[in-house]
Amino acid sequence: MRVNPNYTPSILADLGQTETQEQTYTEQLATGLRVNMPSDDPAAAAADVQNQALQSQTDQYLQNTSNLDGLMQTADSALSSVITSLNQAISLGVQGGNSDLTTANQQELAEQVQTIQSQIVQLANTSYQGSYIFGGTATQSAPYTLDSTQPDGVLYNGNSGVNNVEVAPGTNLQTNLPGSQVFQGAGGSIMGALQQLVTALQSGNTTSIGTATTQVGTALSYVSQQRVFYDSGISQLNSNQSYLQQEQVNLQTQETTLVGADMAAAATGLSHAQTQQSATLAALAQIIPQSLLNYLK
Amino acid sequence: MGSLSSSMWIAAQALDVDQGALDATSNNIANQNTPGYSREIPVLTEGAPTVEGDVTYGGGVVLQQVQSVTDQLLQIQFADQNQQQSSAQTQYNALQQVQELFSNPTSGIGADFTSFFNSLSQLSTDPTSIPDRQAVLTSAQNLATSFNSTEESLDSIQSGLNQSVSQNVTQINSLTAQIAQINGQVGQMQKLGEDPGNLGDQETALIQQLSQLTNVNQIQTENGLTLTTGNGTPLVVGDQSFALTTTAGPNGMTDVSSQGQDITSTLQGGELGGNLQVRDTVIPGLLSQLDNLASQFSTSVNAAQAMGYDLNGNAGQPLFSDTSGPGAASNLTVAITDPNLIAASSDGTQGSNGNVANLLAVQNQALPGGEDPLDTYSSLVSQTGNLTDQAQAEVTASTASLNNLNNQLGSISGVNLDEETTNLMNYQRAYEAAARVVTTVDALTQSVLDMGSGVTAAP
User: Fold this and answer.
1) Do residues A260 and A40 touch, judged by C-beta distance below 8 A?
2) Which of B378, B385, B403 faces A13 most closely, judged by CB atoms?
3) Is A10 on the interface with B (CB under 8 A)?
4) Residue A177 near residue A79 (C-beta atoms within 8 A)
5) Nearest residue of A to residue B425 by CA position?
6) Is residue B311 exposed (0-12), middle (13-18) or buried (19+ Cβ within 10 Å)?
7) Residues B367, B372, B377, B382, Cα dihedral to 10°
8) Of B115, B349, B410, which is closest to A6 when you measure between CB atoms?
9) Nearest CA of chain B to the CA of A90: how many Å?
10) Beta-carbon neighbour count of residue A249 at 10 Å?
């Protein structure tokens, strides 16, 4: 059988193929990626787009979590100060209920309660990063101003709006309670109770001082209940953070599985391709000089 | 009865024939590396015998012809594989540029979609923050820029292919003109029963070059070959070639016509077919998906904007310019520059983030196209990947089969130096022997001439 005497083109094509393999493996080793171009694995490349998006989203959720944590810690510590102030007001009320007190003493106590009242107004006007946190969604102006013409002694400028923020895929967290609910709630209005205590102390009527003090107590237990909202929010954020960090690790693992190179396989493949190439070159070097002409004298 | 003169004549003819055979061998050796060359073999036959009485005398040797050894069928298969390989390679080269645009998972449209929604998510934690609002505008701007540059890059790849189309047509015309010239002569020779030899090789080589440019049908007629495009548009008939012409089409793309008829959509195979396939089918497909994505995405975001209120308490204005139809992706721009105009609020109060949820919902809602924005984009990634992968597989397959055919052709037509050297020695020996016959007969003739002169012939 006659064979193609000009075999060099096909050997060169084989060499070209081996070189392509070497390039592929070297690129995998250099980048650590199996998929460097969509054509390397179209399905994995498309899945990688989703994976990268999820990783970046998870980073953002973590960022949201940390932002909200700051907000809720601020609100929580404000409410903790409110509770301290209310305890002071209660002890002032108890003192005021003592029938031995002079009117002047009672007036003095009334002034002290008024100080507490304005302290609480200040706490109700707490802001976080330039936004008032107890004004509902009206965050750009102070929610409370002292106003003795009002029944509760204060004017609420806020609204009853609440905000929700997504902190994990599909998980929304309410981030605020409006001041009208915290400080003037139906279950125990702090502002109303304090104003009544002031009025009662000023009037010197021990019965109404007693009633008002009880009301401040009711308001205290009510605001403690409200504080649970922030406490549980903070603990939810903490567990959310651990969840998101775990999710990040999962997504990175997924990414490696999707597009990461099998380094051992790439290294072995490279060495195979190299061996094959040297063998082909050696064979070529052996064959090319062979010709009948060598043996003719 | 045999005679000295007939012996001399046979020997002289043998010398001629051996010289001819040596010529053919020498020509083979000379052309062993010439592309497209088919080895030639001297076809030797016996001369017409002479019959005298009961004796038949041999008539020496005759060099009937020097024949080119080739296989027409293999050549046609080779041309067919050639056009497939060349078309696949051209598509692969163009698609590599296309997939490059969709290859980076951490930048480009996909990553910018996520950044845009992340900036909105960030804004939801502090809806009055001006830096956060500015970040939304910036990421929207980045997204628009990515859409613009991706579409513009696709456009520029397309117009590059368009230029190649014109060049291909010029090359085809030049080749068909050369082929027609040779084809006329080859046809003449074939009519006379002659072997076209080297001329045939030249024509075959030119047809192979033509096959790299487009799919060519070959029909053997009594006036040589008739070459047509895949769908039958004539390129070469006899010694006449039919030039293709290019005209500017309505969409700015070059159309190819033959004798006034637009044949662009019927051209397949070869570089020209590959260029047309990517230019007219692949890229327009991607462009229209990109345009739909840009237009549907901006419409959805604008609709969500309109549901809320900006920081000034006014109803939300469109965030993106209204864009649709061809060029939507390259025309996508951010319509507002004032960060206060992001409609984060659902009730008109500044601190409300209620409408951010509506804006964020665009991320996971199916667009009219059927998938959410990122899924639509990632399907573009897998499409370009698949197209490139297919083209690559086709290149590998057709190259292997081309190599195989080349080996088959080489085994028939290739010049083997060992074989030629052996032939060279055979013809050399034959020539030497024939020359010896001439000297021997010459000596005998001398003896005959000396017979009557009393001089004895030299021993």
Assistant:
1) no
2) B403
3) yes
4) no
5) A296
6) buried
7) -120
8) B410
9) 34
10) 9
Residue A79, both tokens: 């409410």
Q: Does A175 touch chain B (CB under 8 A)?
A: yes
Any bridge partners for residue B379, and if so which? none
Is residue B13 within 8 A of residue B62, CB to CB? The reply is yes
Bridge partners (DSSP) listed for residue B56: B51
Q: Which of B458, B316, B335, B412 is nearest to B70 (CA)?
A: B412
Per-residue pLDDT of chain B (459 residues; tens, 9 = 90+): 578 888 999 999 999 999 999 999 999 999 988 888 899 999 999 998 888 888 888 889 999 988 889 888 999 999 999 999 999 999 999 999 999 999 988 889 999 999 999 999 999 999 999 999 999 999 999 999 999 999 999 999 999 999 999 999 999 999 999 999 999 999 888 888 888 888 888 999 999 999 999 999 998 888 788 999 888 899 999 889 999 999 988 888 999 999 888 888 889 899 999 999 999 999 999 999 999 999 999 999 999 999 999 999 999 999 999 788 889 999 999 999 999 999 999 999 999 999 999 999 999 999 998 999 999 999 999 999 999 999 999 999 999 999 999 999 999 999 998 999 999 999 999 999 999 999 999 999 998 888 877 655 455
Closest in B121, B127, B422 to A292, CB measured: B422
Q: Is ipTM strictly over 0.90?
A: no
- Residue A214 parent element (H or E): helix A206-259
User: Would you give the DSSP letter of residue B49?
Assistant: P
Q: Are B341 and B353 in contact (CB under 8 A)?
A: no
Residues of chain B in contact with residue A60, where contact means CB-CB under 8 angstroms, are 118, 121-122
* A296 contact B CB<8A: yes
Which of A:212-241 have CB within 8 Å of B? none
| Under 8 Å between Cβ of B316 and B308 | yes
Nearest chain B Cα distance for residue A142, angstroms: 12
What does the alpha-carbon distance between residue B28 and residue B25 come to, in Å, rounded to a whole number? 5
- Closest-approach residue (CA) in chain A for B360: A166
Calculate ∠ Cα A50-A52-A53, nearest 5°.
60
Residue B6 φ/ψ, nearest 5 degrees: -70, -35
Contacts of B71 (CB under 8 A, 6+ apart): B408, B409, B412, B413
User: What is the residue whose two structure tokens read 């028939």?
Assistant: B412
Q: What is the DSSP letter of B308?
A: S
Mutate which of A41, A49, A165, A175 to test chain B, going by most B C-beta atoms within 10 A?
A49
Instruction: With CB atoms and an 8 Å threshold, state whether A52 touches B122.
Output: no
